[in-house]
Amino acid sequence: MNSVLIIAAMAFTETVRDKILYSILVFALAMIGSSTILVTLSVGGEGRIVKNLGLACITLFGLFIAVFIGINLVSREIERRTIFSLLSKPVRRAEFLIGKFLGLGLTLAVNLGIMAAGLMVLAWALEGHWTPRILLAAGFTFVELLILTATAILFSTFSTPTLSAIYTLLVFVIGRLSADLMAFAAQFGGASLKAMTNGLYYLLPNLSRFNLSAAVANDLAVDPGTLALTVIYGALYVAAVLALAIAVFQRRDFR
Amino acid sequence: MEPVIQIERLCKDYRVGFWGRRVRVLRDLSLEIRAGETFGYLGPNGAGKSTTIKLLLGLIWPTAGTGRVLAHPLGDASTRGRIGFLAENPSFYEYLTGQEFLTYSGRLLGVPRGALKEQAPALLAEVGLERAAGQQIRKYSKGMVQRLGLAQALLGDPHLLILDEPMSGLDPIGRKEVRDLILRQRAAGRTVFFSTHILPDVEMICDRVGILVGGRLVRSGSLRTMLGEELESIEVTATAIPAETLAAVGRLALSPPLVQDDRVMVQLPGEAELDIALFMLIGAKSRVLSVVPQRRSLETIFLEASREAQA
Fold this sequence. Notes:
Chain A is an all-alpha fold. Chain A contains 10 helices and no strands. Helix content of chain A is 82%, strand content 0%.
């Protein structure tokens, strides 16, 4: 356990010393801020537009952090052979991967926190009251991004950084659409299309469950039981993907 | 006492190319390293030296064969706390400073914080990096990275040091420092296993050597025996030799004596001929200036072993 925390601390240090992170963060805050321009186009509902766009920005830039920094955390270690000095210490390969995952998770938490705080201040400036549910939506985005981080780590244990990034982005897109695709196939598709969309729905993470932006922006009620189940689903999915990543990583030769 | 390293009939295949063709890079390697030994693992580039080292550390898995390091099976994570390892052309986290890297490495080894505060600066000083301790590793030269690698290998007082090409990337001063450092480790009772292709260094510091060619261990044994058995000749230099004595000694020599002014140098094939020649020279009241045994260098043995293996 001690090794996991040390590796997590190292991974966090690595990401916060990476200039790319700051570029993403500054760009994300600028995007959230610039959503106020769109407010001038609408009559009423300014806060709703800003919250909707802001939460979309948080997901998008969080995704960039999870994918581009997440993939580098493992594959750069292998490519630059820095992994030799780590795995020649009393560190199990599983501890290495879990440490990296936790380190990046911390980086994501800090960055999502900053973006969500920025959005909350902006929504307050427009509406004159606080919307704490922005934090709830950002929290669910965080769980969604943890699934994608675990997926990025899984791909980077056996594939090149570029392919891993493409695969992870595909998982994000399909994961966000899989429920819609299944509903579409159920209505209009043949047996084979139904089987395929069902397969994608059950195999890939159902990421649309983590998207609370519509509920938060429109001030709709959300069922606490469903939310709790969603969090449990996310945690189990992360555990399963990490277990698979560890199984692959365990057999790998570091030449 | 169980050997520090014991491997038996170890084989390693790599898959190469698009179709994943199997290539055997290590064949039936058996090796035993005893406690306190300094073992030089020699071989040309691509012989399988780094592959062996990675197998010992569990960075890669054997295709066949078994092995034990410090009484544990290959790849056992708990053993690695007692092993100091330096990889070939090492690379460390560029965003950390030398001091930070040693601190992280020490913590992974389980060195208590208090001990680490003393050990890290002392080791940085030992490898000559005390002034660069606060610099990010990205600003280090190749030689400085190598030195940092040695410092992290010595952290936590390891029983066994595994060094892959520790002299590469170092200037002559650096090489001498590494040589001295290995000698200090030997004097402290540590077992050192290191690979190299810089042969003069090996002659100076090793107890035993193994020569690996094409994934096969072609020679292995005590360096003294290996070099001592292969005495090439003995050169005797003397002055004031009467003509008839010179002729008699000349008949024992491998080649005609070399005469320069009043000095004569004869090359004798072995110790028996040396006894007779000295007896004759002393009897003739000549002055013997030097007797120099000409041993075969490790380089000759290495080249011969490589040629034999390739043939």
